[in-house]
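Hi there,

I know you've been waiting on this one. I reran it after we fixed the sequence typo, so this is the corrected version. Both the input and the resulting structure follow.
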Amino acid sequence: MELQVAALENGTVIDHIPPEQLFKVAQLIGLNRMDNLITFGNNLKSKKMGRKGMIKIADKFFVEDEINRLALVAPNVVLSIIRDYEVVEKKYVSLPEELVDIVKCNNPKCVTNNEPMSSRFNVIDKERGTIKCRYCERKINKEDIIIK
């Protein structure tokens, strides 16, 4: 059985999402608060991954901050930007060198948790998703990251 999904006129397709991360991605980018037409697919066949998740969002184009948040839970996803039914750009999502005001430091004594200021983390291992607080130097692994 072939699944038929309407073509997207304008918007973004988030592709190659690890299946176990699909709903985390949906929550992270706030799909529950959007009025856009949204199509989900999960456990779809993938030559590259075996199985994958995918989200199509009509009339939505992501800004850098949203893409960086996405990279925290699902690095290596592909964003296909669609305009007039054509893919006009593909963005390969990866963690940036620095995350500003996206992650909460999990050290309760860190100055960022006690003063009104932005958190700043350096990404020290893109493959493993390890980050380090610029202020208290606490290292945080991907599975322990708290997104603001």
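Quick highlight: The CA atoms of residues 76 and 93 lie 5 Å apart.

Best,
R. S.
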